Amino acid sequence: MALGELSALPTGELIFIDSNILTYHLLNDPFYGTRCKEFVKKVENGEYEGFISPLVVSETLFNLIKATILKAYHLRPKEIVPFLKAKPQAVSNVDLEPAMELFNLFSLVPISESEVRACYRAIKDYSLLTNDAFHVATMKQRELKNIATNDPDFERVDWLTIWKP
Q1: Is 119 inside any structural domain?
Q2: Is 4 a domain residue?
Q3: What pTM was estimated for this model as a whole?
Q4: The CATH number of the domain where 120 resides is what?
Q5: In angstroms, what is the C-alpha Rg of the chain?
């Protein structure tokens, strides 16, 4: 396992993008937002080829929905689930277009039966929770060794190069 700053990723690399990078970008995170926007711009300019999976899309959309509703309704994080159970229509008011445009910049790789089998192995080998194990399985199946993430759990995967914002 190797670590590097996302801004130092060499041109031409293939890289899997974790949902936290996309979330920081979409929500203009005060600490990581600018760095993630710069990275996304480099992908858009063809400096890197970025990959995401349906789970990254799901996680990013969920983060965007939660953050938007928390802000719009002045909720605390622990209030989000009860609020959405009582007012599910609030989800339909969230503007998902920026996320959909963002996802179009990346190659969407499917999760197939082979990734499901590899996920079990990643859970056992690296003590990962399911979504992270699916990310590792997806990367392994496609021989992607670079990941853009701020999640320290991936540091347990010895063959990855982790690029942090």
Answers
A1: yes
A2: no
A3: 0.94
A4: 3.40.50.1010
A5: 16
